[in-house]
Amino acid sequence: MADLLKTGINTKYLAPIVVAYAAAAGLLGIDRVTQAQTLLQHAGFAGVAGIVMIVLQELFPRSVKEVLVFWRLRDRPPGCRAFTVIAPKDARVDATDLAVLLPSTPMNPTEQNALWYKWLKATESDPAIADNHRRFLILRDSAVLLALLTLVTPVLLLWPTSDPARILTLGGGVFLAYVVMALSARNAAVRLVGNVVARKVGTA
Prior knowledge:
Blueprint lengths: L1 H4 L3 H19 L7 H25 L2 H9 L11 H8 L5 H7 L7 H15 L3 H26 L11 H40 L1
């Protein structure tokens, strides 16, 4: 189901990010030519770079993507806090009804995530859950791609006619976009966790 939800993300969301990045690099005059010439030159670059970046993004294991989005080295996914942090804050979730569905013994973060993921698989056919899940995947992969572009930007300093100040502007803008996208992905993930728990409790 997750693979199905990811269908079209690369072409609809990730490729335009790379094109926008290349266009921004051109408009900032990194190679000091006219804007029209620069955009034409960077169109070819965007095509090649887009393929490379998307391939690299796909090569990243999920654990690396989680670190880049959730900024945690351990217990990264919010599912690890599904029943101890997220559910208690959700007004839709009745604590008594939830307790009936949980083991009698306390669960560690890994166990919480495993049980929550089982609930996700049981409810992912629900249109609202599927839409929420897809939104998270789009935001997560976009954040990872922007992180890659942030890391790649300093390489532009090797361009013979590069302007360090403008490259710094480009890098700063891409990094800011990454931070915003990562925060959005985190919020979407928390909503997904809460929606799955609420759906499971409400239909139990």
